[in-house]
Amino acid sequence: EFVAILPHTDAKGAAMIADQMRANIEKKNIAHAYSTITDHVSISLGVAVMLPNKSASPEKLIAKADEALYQAKEAGRNRYAIAQ
Length: 84
Hints:
Layout: H1 11-28, E1 45-47, H2 58-74, E2 80-82
Parallel strand pairs: 1-2
């Protein structure tokens, strides 16, 4: 897993970037010989957006993104989900 920090990016912009990242990996058509799910590498992404304030914390943002990631995986993988 990795994190992409996108300053000055709203949820719509982050979703667009997430989908571009997903599509770029898909276009590479990298064989995934050891997967029992698919024959090519794909990525699932969790998108979370937070405006800085006194109650905001990096841990909360990461937890929201992680929750969205698992929603994307449960929905079928090779997609993104946005945290609510």
